[in-house]
Amino acid sequence: MSCNHINPPGYHFCGKCGEALEVDRCRCGFAAAAGDIFCGRCGASLVANMGGISKAATDTGQRLDLELMAQQAAQEKQFIETTHKARVTQDDIRKLLVTRKRRF
Amino acid sequence: MEKRKARILIADDEVHIRSLIRLIVTSLGAEVVAEAADGEQALSLYREHRPDMVMLDINMPKLDGIAVLKQIIEINPRTLVIMLTSLNALDVVKECIDNGAWNYLLKNTTAEELNREINRTWKDYMAAIQESAKS
Asked: Is A82 close to B87, i.e. CB distance below 8 A?
């Protein structure tokens, strides 16, 4: 962005110059800031959205950072597991609430 | 909703969702005291009106619904907060419940089911209030 204004999370356009901001959208729906590696809400890896190894892993001095790549692969695996398994319906939520009945 | 008229704040950045919720809760006999289109506005209107109930979206501009929930519960732990969102990830549901939300409604449910769930939640909440008053 040309004006270097720091915009709060959630902005899709710069509040100062109106330029469109780069936003990585996590699969949970959260609009993360450009360049973020993990989702600020659910902690999922945002590199999975980029279809493979992140730029951070390949740009470090033009060498492949194997440790970072392994870390990202583990995070992608966890992200895929959570996004495919841990989805709930309204019925599931109802059952969950029964087990956690609120009291004052 | 029975006996006492509930005062409600609706917080959602989508105007058609706010309209739908307003229709549902007014049909249940509640009063909508304010509507917010983002998280910061929701908190500000909460402080101003101190409603009994907050219908709260999660993915909102400026401040997300989970952060708003935490602050509302910090201000008044007895506030009835119902999350209304399209997010159906279990960890998000648990986080909201653990932080004081009384119910978590998915936007892909029917208006009839929303109506039923809101009414049931209000009754549960009132029962808990009465129970705590006795003890």
From this structure: no
Which chain B residues are Cβ-neighbours of A88 within 8 angstroms? 88-90, 93
Among B102, B99, B94, B95, which Cα is nearest to B128's? B102
Which pair of tokens denotes residue A1? 């962005």
**In chain B, whose CA is at the least distance from the CA of A81?**
B89
Over residues B19-53, the pLDDT tens digits come to 999 999 999 889 999 999 999 999 999 999 999 99
Residue A20's beta-bridge partner residues?
A13
Which domains occur in chain B, in start order?
A: 7-134 (3.40.50.2300)
Provide the shortest C-alpha distance from residue B8 to chain A (in Å).
20
Q: What is the pTM of this model?
A: 0.64
Q: What is the ipTM for the molecules in this complex?
A: 0.82
B115-127 residue pLDDT tens: 999 999 988 888 8
- In chain A, domain spans: 37-99
SS (H, E, C) chain B: CCCCCCEEEEECCCHHHHHHHHHHHHHCCCEEEEEECCHHHHHHHHHHHCCCEEEECCCCCCCCHHHHHHHHHHHCCCCEEEEEECCCEHHHHHHHHHCCCCEEEECCCCHHHHHHHHHHHHHHHHHHHHHHHHC
Q: Nearest CA of chain A to the CA of B32: how many Å?
A: 24
| Cβ distance of A104 and B132 shorter than 8 Å | yes
Which of B76, B85, B91 to mutate: most A Cβ within 10 Å?
B91
How many Å lie between the alpha carbon of A101 and the closest alpha carbon of chain B?
Answer: 9
